[in-house]
Amino acid sequence: MVKVILALMLVAIQAMTSSAGTIRGMVHDGETMDVLVGASVVVEGTARGAATNPKGFFTIANLEAGTYTLKISMLGYGTLDTSASVGKSDTVMLHLMLKPSAVEIGEVKIETERTQSGVSMKEPTRTEVIRGEDLQARSTDGKLMTALQGKTGLRTKPCALCGSMGIGLQGLDPSYTEVNVDGMPVLSGLGTLYGMDGLSVSDVKELQVTKGSGSNLFGSGAIAGAVNLVSVKPARSKSFSGNVSMNNNAQNTVALSASGLTGKLPMRISLLNSAEPNYVDEDEDGLTDTPKYRRFNGQIGIAPRVGRGDLRFGARTYSERRFAGETNWSAADRGSAVIYGREIFTDRNEISAKYESLAESSLRWFVEGAGVLHKHRSWYGATEYNADQRLILGKGSLKKEWTPRSTTVAEAFFNHQNYDDNLELATKTDLIYNTPGLTLEHTIGLDESQRVMLQGGTKVEYWKEWGVEFVPRGSLLWRPDIATGVRLSAGSGFRPVSIFSLEEATMAGFANVAVPSTLEPDRSIAGSFAVNRQWVGREAAFTLDVSTFYTHFTRKVVLRYGDHADHTVYTNSPKAYSAGAELQAGFTTTSGWSLDAGGRISQSKYKDEMGVMRNAEFQNEYTLSSSLRKSFPKANVTAELSNAVYGPQYIPAGRARDKSPAFATWDIGVSKAWKQFTLSASVKNLFDWTQSDDPYLRDEQTGDLLLDSSLIYGPLLGRTAALSLAWRWSES
Description:
Radius of gyration: 26 Å
CATH topology of the largest domain: Maltoporin, Chain A
Number of strands: 41
CATH superfamily of the largest domain: TonB-dependent receptor, beta-barrel domain
Number of domains: 2
Number of helices: 5
CATH class of the largest domain: Mainly Beta
Low-confidence stretches: 11-18, 103-114
Mean pLDDT: 84
Helix content: under 10%
CATH architecture of the largest domain: Beta Barrel
Largest sheet: 22 strands, antiparallel, barrel
């Protein structure tokens, strides 16, 4: 199958050229220089036109020689008319700017929602927007986490045995990233590591990534930052989309979504079913190279018309069964110490509601709530681990715009969390929290042009066990020109923890767990400095984003490995830190080439019980990633070559090595689009790299299989090839 996939790629890339002329260009916001996604470019007097892509580019091909008038428009901006002369076989490049404007209907003035991509040049906190269309183009199987793999600045390396992925930021593991859905932290706790794998990329309008602890509008546990998934709105108009994919191991995914099924009531429904139905054991050692699994995710959203505001309801159900271990394992061996199996069952249900007032005045208000029920049943070898989590979240918000330069946001919230597991340890692991709180954040432009903006405030929470906690945060933005942003952010963090909320527990399991004392909450102070710059030329655009970060913990929960595989201890470290720097760069040309590249170098350490500063496990010293894409507009073909480099991670004493080796993986893909269909082919781990260290060990006395999770650092599964077919239909 791999040879067939590669042959299809070569055929597709060899697109036929034509002698007709082409107009290409890029559209920007005339004030902020942000690229505009979805702007309409129409050739007057013809039916020809195009919309700008997630990079802000458009292409109109196959034009006869002549002079044309182009009309460029976008809701919320003034219309621009410009002319372009095209010769036979010529390619004309344009850079165009639209001036923002308001849409007025009678006496109602409406500020439209503007579509952006990349790092925002207006927000004091560093917020990167990743468009849903861009995510769909990157996902080969319809899943969100597949689209995020290899994304610069995000740590999404999957666990070779647990088969789960989270989103890590600024050198910290995913449990320090708050994950929100439409502004509500429903994917906290268990959901951070076991609720994201089944999300469909078609449900995401955009992904907002805020790095660091600079924003008060995220929870006190957003120590590394936050990710907000903005959902696609329910619609009244009819539309359907789907994605079917399969690889050479029979791993398959079917994703379907539809809107407008009821006619009058805006509604959206989506279904995703994904499975690895077989035991995959390419090296024939009797152990799985990748988890066998089945996942189902179903979502529904409705938006009934109530008053003058925007009301939305949503519900989601997610179920999963996952297994890794010996291939001769059967259900009768569940919990066996003789035949090793790591089996995990997850059932998760979510509901949400939000009412948002219209933007009719300088004062807006929001009311929202959510509920989550998460059940987890698992066996890690002979150890059975069960956990339940119940969340009830409520929030009311006011947003007041005093002047165009001054805005205040105030929130009152209440969070209920009930976490119950079956661990029998010296410390209490069951948790019940009822946490009321207030948030106040003010943003002010310090000059008329708002080139210097200051944002600050605090979150105040009441915890029965620890009293009142103040979590202050703030950010400063300086824009020396419209293409440059310099940011300084700082803030504190406070996070009560359960063992299961830690990524280390997900990977290590629960065999012979020891907790010598009560686990106190994480407490942190963090700061970051970032510079973002855009250069726009006639034929290309270049963006550069450089940031440094430092997070200091005065108390942090850590996993402390013993000197042998079957021994894990969780304890509070009195001092820990994560420090490093990141670089992201993007280069795009009007001829269809784009390159995204970047990397991170960081160090994470903690003080052990002997007062010695130790390197944290599971954290790579550096990571690098790049993605080279080429679009062939005339043939509607896109080809991509991407790679990810993972630096060494520290391995505890008693093993054969101190560090894991650095390694790189390469992926290649090509897609061909028609009016409603897109056919994609891809090869993952092109050069068939797998880690040499075996995390499965045998007990010298009993011969039983043991898992040394400290030796999990790279893929155990080699090259895979996949095909996928996506389709979309809309009545508009």
